[in-house]
Specification:
The structure is a homodimer of 208-residue chains.
Chain A: H1 5-8, H2 23-35, H3 42-48, H4 53-60, H5 63-87, H6 93-110, H7 112-116, H8 126-152, H9 161-173, H10 175-178, H11 187-202
Helix pairs in contact in A: 2-5, 5-6, 5-8, 6-8, 6-9, 6-11, 8-9
C-alpha cells in the first residue's frame, strides 16, 4: 500500500498533512524546482542536507534515485487520497467522479511542489521512467473506469473515455501553471470549480 | 506584427508551414528538449551548428538569449495564427470562440516542439522572463475577452472569464503531455474534439 497511509488514514481525504521527507529529499526537491534536474548536483544536495556524499549514495544510489524517490512519494500520497475519496463516495457514478476530480484538484494545489516534479520524469533512465509511468498511469485508467461507469449508467454523454480522461487530467494539471498560495481562492474553492467544469464536460446538454 | 506573417499570410490559418529557424536555434531546440535548459551548454550548441562560439555570442548573446529567441518565435507564430483565425470568423461570439480554441489546439499539435519549450521560461532572467510573460499573457487575455463577449451576448453561462480562460488553456496545454505524431488522431480531429469540450464547458445546460 501507499507509503503515507499510516499517517493519512487518520484524516479525511480533504486534508493534506505534511508529507514526511528526509533532509536529502527536502533539499533535492527545492533544488530541482529552482535549477531543474540537470542544474542540480548531488554535491550541492549533500552539502545542503549536511551529509557526506557516501551517505547520500548509500540511501539513494544517485541523483536519478533521488528524483525517483520524490516522484514515488508524490504518487503514494496521491493514491492514498484517491483511495480514501472513492471509499467515501456511494455507488452513484456521478458522485464517484466528482470526488475523483476534487481530489486530483486538491493534489495539484496542496501538493503543488511535489506535483511540479512530474515534468522532470523524462530525465529518469529507461527502467525507472517505465516504473514511474506504469504507476502514474493508474490515475488515467482509474478515471477512464469512472467515466465508463457513468456512460454505462446513462449519466455521462461521452464516446471515448480514454481520450476524455486525458482531457480532464490535462485541465486539472493546468492548475500547476498558475496556482500559488497567495491567490484569492482556496484549494477547496478551486477544486469545487474544476469539479463543476468536469461534470459539465461529460454530462448531456439535455432538452429536459 | 508577428515575425512569421510574411510566410504565413499566404496560407489558411489551419496550415502550419515549417517555422524557419537558424542552425543555432534548430540545434538548441533539440538540445533543450533532450537535456533541458541547464543540461545544454552553449559549446555543444555551437559545435552542433558547426559555428564558433564568438559567432553564437554575436547573434544571441548567451544561452538565455537563445532560449528567449525560440520562445519569441513560437509566440509570433502562435499570434499570427490567432490573428488569422479571428479574421476568418464572423461576429458571432460562439464562432470566434470556436476558432480560437481550435487554433490553440492546432498550435499544441503542429508546433509541439516549440510549445514544449514554454516550461523552460522560468530559467530566463528577470528582464527576459517578464518580457516573455507579458507577451504570452495575451493568449489568456484575448480568451477572456472572447468569453466576456459570449457572456454579454447571453450565449455563454460563466461568471469568471479570467478563471475560466485559465481552465480552458490548461485543458489545451494538456495536449503536450500525450500528443505524438504517431497517434491515431490527426491534429484537426484533436482540435475538433477540444473545441467540442470547450463549448460544453462554457455553454448553458439548457432546458430548451
Amino acid at each position: 500500500m501507499a507509503a503515507g497511509d499510516a499517517t493519512l488514514s487518520q484524516y479525511d481525504w480533504h486534508t493534506y498533512p505534511d508529507v514526511p521527507l528526509t533532509p536529502i529529499l527536502t533539499v533535492a526537491l527545492n533544488s530541482f524546482q529552482e535549477l531543474g534536474y540537470h542544474g542540480t548536483t548531488v554535491r550541492a544536495i549533500a552539502a545542503g542536507a549536511n551529509l557526506t556524499m557516501p551517505t547520500l549514495y548509500y540511501h539513494y544510489g544517485n541523483k536519478e534515485g533521488i528524483l525517483f524517490a520524490l516522484l514515488d512519494i508524490a504518487l503514494d500520497d496521491f493514491y492514498t487520497h484517491i483511495d480514501l475519496c472513492l471509499a467515501d463516495a456511494d455507488d452513484n457514478p456521478l458522485h464517484r467522479f466528482e470526488n475523483y476530480i476534487t481530489t486530483v484538484a486538491l493534489h495539484y494545489t496542496h501538493r503543488r511542489d511535489l506535483a511540479m516534479l512530474h515534468d522532470e520524469y523524462r530525465f529518469l533512465g529507461d527502467t525507472l521512467r517505465e516504473k514511474y509511468l506504469t504507476k502514474r498511469n493508474l490515475v488515467q485508467t482509474k478515471l477512464e473506469d469512472l467515466l465508463q461507469d457513468g456512460i454505462t449508467a446513462g449519466i455521462f454523454d461521452d464516446k471515448d473515455p480514454h481520450f476524455t480522461a486525458r482531457v480532464l487530467l490535462g485541465m486539472l494539471g493546468g492548475i500547476l501553471d498558475w496556482y500559488n498560495t497567495n491567490g484569492p481562492l482556496t484549494p477547496t474553492e478551486i477544486a469545487d470549480r474544476y469539479t463543476h467544469y468536469a461534470v459539465r464536460l461529460v454530462t448531456k446538454h439535455t432538452e429536459a
